[in-house]
Q: What sequence folds into this?
């Protein structure tokens, strides 16, 4: 047996899993992913459970903190529809047993079982996954063209634009002058999107975040430090499926 799910005291769904990489018993607790206990080769599940019991107080404290984080994640689709920049997702609870998606140019119908709880983890995970794909489409349609327009306007030179789904960065500029942009930029208003694009374009000339960088950026973006502070209010980890 390579893995098993166990309940210990009041804590449910603890995943005990054999790991070739683990050198010792390791307990990890992550938002929306639950508890995983990595068990090295040569160590039994019974031994791992004994270690878990010794760490029970720490686990409870960690779970309380994780719960606070999880509660900050927005719930989608409660009104019956979700609107993005270019798409309208209509949620239909029509009694079918399986989840189905019907996609048109700018409209998406998401069919769910009739009595399914919209707040359930299964449905919210499906909605977030669908949103990621829609934002990916919108980002590819919008961001490269917007980078080209702003670069031409302000005489920046860059190589290529890459669209990524990153967990921590809104954008970056590589040493080869490639501009990497997070598809989640499509969640933001146009002003913040342009701020990120111009921020990264300026990195093709100034690599650091020195006072010179911010002074130069103010020539292209009004109040860049305020926009940078506004951007920090959007935590990417809350949107990860």
A:
């Amino acid at each position: 047996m390579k893995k098993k799910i166990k309940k210990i005291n009041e804590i449910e769904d603890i995943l005990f899993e054999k790991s070739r990489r683990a050198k010792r018993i390791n307990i990890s607790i992550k938002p929306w992913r639950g508890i995983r206990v990595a068990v090295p080769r040569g160590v039994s599940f019974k031994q791992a459970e004994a270690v878990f019991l010794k760490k029970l107080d720490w686990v409870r404290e960690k779970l309380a903190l994780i719960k606070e984080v999880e509660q900050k994640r927005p719930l989608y689709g409660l009104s019956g529809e979700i609107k993005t920049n270019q798409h309208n997702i209509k949620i239909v609870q029509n009694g079918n047993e399986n989840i189905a998606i019907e996609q048109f140019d700018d409209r998406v119908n998401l069919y769910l079982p009739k009595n399914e709880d919209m707040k359930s983890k299964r449905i919210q995970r499906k909605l977030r996954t669908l949103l990621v794909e829609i934002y990916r489409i919108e980002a590819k349609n919008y961001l490269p063209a917007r980078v080209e327009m702003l670069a031409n306007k302000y005489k920046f030179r860059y190589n290529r634009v890459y669209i990524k789904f990153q967990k921590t960065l809104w954008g970056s500029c590589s040493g080869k002058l490639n501009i990497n942009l997070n598809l989640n930029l499509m969640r933001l208003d146009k002003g913040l999107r342009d701020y990120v694009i111009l921020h990264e374009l300026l990195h093709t000339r100034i690599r650091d975040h020195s006072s010179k960088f911010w002074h130069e950026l103010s020539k292209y973006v009004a109040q860049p430090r305020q926009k940078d502070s506004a951007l920090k209010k959007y935590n990417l980890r809350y949107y990860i499926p």
The radius of gyration is 23 Å.
